[in-house]
Amino acid sequence: MNMVTAIRIVRKFVHRKWFSDDPQRDIYLVSYPRSGNTWMRAVIAELLLKRKTTSLRELDYIVPDIYYRIPKNKIPNLDKYIVKSHEPFRTNLPSAKYRKVIYLVRDPRNVAVSYYRYIMKNELNNYPTDEFISNFVSGKIFPCSWQEHVSSWTVGMARAIDLLIIKYEDLIQSPKENIKRIAEFIGINPKDNLLDEVIASCSKEGMREKEFNGNRPEIESKELYFIGSGNGELILTAQQEQLICDYARIPMEIFGYR
Known about the structure:
With 258 residues, the chain is of the alpha/beta class. It is 48% helix and 8% strand. It has a four-stranded parallel beta sheet with strand order 2-1-3-4, with helices on both faces. It is globular and about 50 Å long.
C-alpha cells in the first residue's frame, strides 16, 4: 500500500468516525466567548428535543461544538444541525462559508468580567486584571477583540447571509419573545407550554444543575466551570471600563450599550 492510498483510507475513516459540520446544511450559533453561548445551546437543545436536558454533557450531542470532537454515532441523525462557533467572520476562515447564523451579542464589559473569571478558574492563577483587559481590547486573546468579532458579523459582508442577531440582555428581559424568534429561525413552532418549560429549565439555577449533573469527561472539577454568577467576581475599575468603551465605542453604540 502506497502513502497516498494510506492517507485516503485514514481520511475516510476519520470522516466516518467524527461528526463534521457542513455550512451548506447547518445553522451556526456564533458568539464571542462568554456571551451566553452555553445557555443558548441548552435553550436550542430543549426546543429541538421538546424535553428538559439533564446535563451540559448532553448538549455536545444535540448542539455540537466545532472545537470539540464528537463520535458520529452519538449524534442524532438530522437533516440539519445547530452548531456552536466562536469564529469571527473572515474571508480566509471557514466561517466565511456559513450560510445561516444566530449571532449572540453581549455587553463587552460583562463579557470581559466573565471571560476573566473563566480564565482564572481554569487556566491561570495570577493574571493581572489590567493585563487581561489590555489583551481583551487589543485582540491578544482568543479569538480576537470583542469589537472586531461583533463588527465582523453585524456590519459589512456577513450581513448578506441569513443572520439573526440576538442580544443577551434582551433574552434576560424578554425570554419568551426572543426564544420564539430563535425557534422560528431554526424552523420550529413551539407551543407556549414548551417555551415556559424551556425558560424554567434553562434558568440560572437550572443551568447550574445541568453542569453539576455532568460535563465533558476531561473536566474533573466539581466547581462550576462554565456557568458563573452572571457577572463573575471581578469588578472593573473606572479606568478598565473606560478602556473597553474607548476601543469598542462604535459597536457598543450600535447595540445600545452605554
